[in-house]
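[Discussion] Sanity-checking designs against the backbone

I'm trying to build intuition for which residues belong where. Below is a structure token string of 292 positions. I'd appreciate it if someone posts a full sequence so I can compare it with mine line by line.
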């Protein structure tokens, strides 16, 4: 277990930490978040490592996170992540911008011949010979207080991340691949990666029957998926809390003409019908009209 760990749970400690980290060449970053009851991820912890400092920051206890934001959005500091997409999505939705420049050690490892989806723990084992514990994988990171073991588990995600970064960058330089890693990580600076097009969300519904849809059924199916995505964002609720995948498919297949017909469909519970029945029927009717 790692013992060299600062736990930051108040504004003064955060300001002091960030003051020390100012001007660092790179900063290893990871986050813990919850996304059970919301559309957008809820930030629960931020782990950082740099200049020999390892810290776990508790944003649920700190009202002003601006000192950390200054570091994260400093263009002179390289932010190091592993499998950066989810972390970057979180920061993008919190701040409307991305903490560039970024180096993703998963991408870097791929350039050095590792599996393109290699996980952090496996890469740490293969490159550093360290076996990380998996005892806290089911932690509810919103719950307080967190145990020392949970905090140390979270901190491990950045302590070894910095070591991976330095080793990988040395290898990439030796093999003249620095321009490749920079180019591929620059592609992460694309807001569209973190704001999927609602019109394309129908492609994420993996139900075999959809392949047979055409005409009005296909049009309604696509429009329902787009509507659900927009509604989930606006209400900050999980997509399937708005309406389930198989309910969307059943509506598109049957094209019900009224609430009674819609209520008999599998997956259409009373709460969904009461809350969204009118708009769902409007989508169905519009799709049917186009193909009459």
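Best answer:
Here's mine. Compare freely.
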């Amino acid at each position: 277990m790692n013992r060299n760990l600062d736990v930051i749970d108040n504004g003064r400690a955060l300001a002091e930490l960030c003051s020390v980290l100012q001007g660092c060449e790179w900063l290893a970053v990871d986050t813990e978040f919850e996304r059970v009851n919301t559309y957008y991820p809820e930030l629960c912890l931020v782990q950082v490592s740099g200049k020999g400092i390892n810290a776990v920051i508790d944003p649920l206890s700190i009202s002003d996170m601006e000192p950390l934001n200054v570091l994260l959005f400093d263009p002179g500091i390289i932010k190091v992540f592993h499998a950066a997409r989810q972390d970057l999505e979180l920061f993008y939705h919190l701040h409307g911008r991305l903490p560039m420049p970024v180096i993703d050690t998963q991408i870097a490892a791929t350039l050095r011949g590792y599996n393109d989806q290699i996980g952090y723990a496996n890469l740490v084992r293969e490159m550093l010979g360290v076996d990380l514990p998996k005892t806290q994988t089911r932690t509810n990171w919103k719950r307080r207080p967190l145990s020392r073991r949970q905090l140390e588990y979270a901190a491990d995600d950045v302590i070894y991340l910095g070591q991976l970064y330095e080793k990988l960058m040395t290898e990439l330089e030796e093999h003249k691949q620095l321009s490749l890693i920079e180019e591929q990580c620059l592609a992460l600076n694309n807001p569209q990666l973190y704001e999927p097009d609602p019109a394309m969300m129908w492609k994420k519904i993996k139900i075999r029957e959809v392949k047979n849809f055409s005409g009005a059924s296909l049009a309604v199916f696509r429009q329902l998926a787009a509507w659900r995505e927009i509604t989930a964002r606006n209400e900050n609720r999980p997509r399937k809390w708005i309406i389930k995948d198989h309910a969307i498919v059943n509506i598109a297949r049957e094209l019900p003409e009224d609430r009674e017909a819609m209520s008999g469909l599998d997956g259409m519970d009373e709460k969904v019908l009461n809350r969204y029945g009118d708009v769902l029927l409007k989508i169905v009717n519009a799709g049917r009209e186009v193909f009459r």
